[in-house]
Amino acid sequence: MQRQLIAIDLDGTTLNEESKLSSLTIRTLRELNKRGHVVTIATGRPYRSSAAIYEELGIRRPMINYNGALCHFPGRTWSEGYHESLRRDIALELLDQQDKLAIDLMLIEGEDQLYSRRLSFGDEDAKREGSATIGIYDWMRLEERGILSRETIFRDPTALLLLSQREHQPTIEQNINQIYGDYIDVKTWGGEAPVLEVIRQGVHKAIGVDTVARYYQIDAKNVIAFGDEQNDLEMLDYAGTGVMMANGNTTLQSVANEVTEYTNNEDGLARFLIDRFKLDF
């Protein structure tokens, strides 16, 4: 078999419902890497909140963060990498319109820090915003957050994270697109946290996957991509084999070539790869 590039989303795909890697998933991906295939993480998460997963997996390959806005090789200087930022003025305008747009909380991902108007959350916040929203802070360490203001955001940010009640997301996305649709794209995170991510227009995971594929001289027909949410759509469409998780968003059905038999909580990705590559542990 020709060398394959295996692009894996994290939340709702590679990770289980506890946001962890299973032992079977780790063994499967390491075995494929050992056989010469390329495994690359393509996630909406910032590197800060996915570095531990990268290290636990133990596969030293390029990585894609922020839904394709950042493509890099952790721990190395990599000339093929890139960083696509968002216009600062758009970020600040959205910050001013936060209440009008029914956004409960807006976070700005700076070049090296996350900015928020609040640094702690209590029981009243959880009751108002919902436990899933507050749960996103499990991987946001206090010391990594700075106070959000016009003065602290003096560079173009990488992305904006918009937290709201899940039922408000479609309206928020529609309203933002009506105003800034020529400049930005809005993506939906997988997993339980109800997060909308705003990034530069035209940026998506497929751009990062194509960058990695060209670096390793792997044709798109030999790319297998796994995803479960709207932000995986372009990546699955790009890949020769786009695989939708059994627990995936139905919007992916239009581009997916295959669907896993099992969900992310049942090692669906690992089981699919074991069968596809005829792995025998």
From TrEMBL:
InterPro entries attached to this UniProt entry: Cof (IPR000150), HAD-like_sf (IPR036412), HAD-SF_hydro_IIB (IPR006379), HAD_sf (IPR023214)
Keyword Transmembrane in annotation: no
Pfam families: Hydrolase_3
Molecular function terms, GO-annotated: magnesium ion binding; phosphatase activity
Keywords: Hydrolase
GO cellular component labels: cytosol
PANTHER family in the record: 5-AMINO-6-(5-PHOSPHO-D-RIBITYLAMINO)URACIL PHOSPHATASE YITU (PTHR10000:SF23), PHOSPHOSERINE PHOSPHATASE (PTHR10000)
Name of the protein described by the UniProt record: Cof-type HAD-IIB family hydrolase
Organism of this sequence: Fundicoccus ignavus
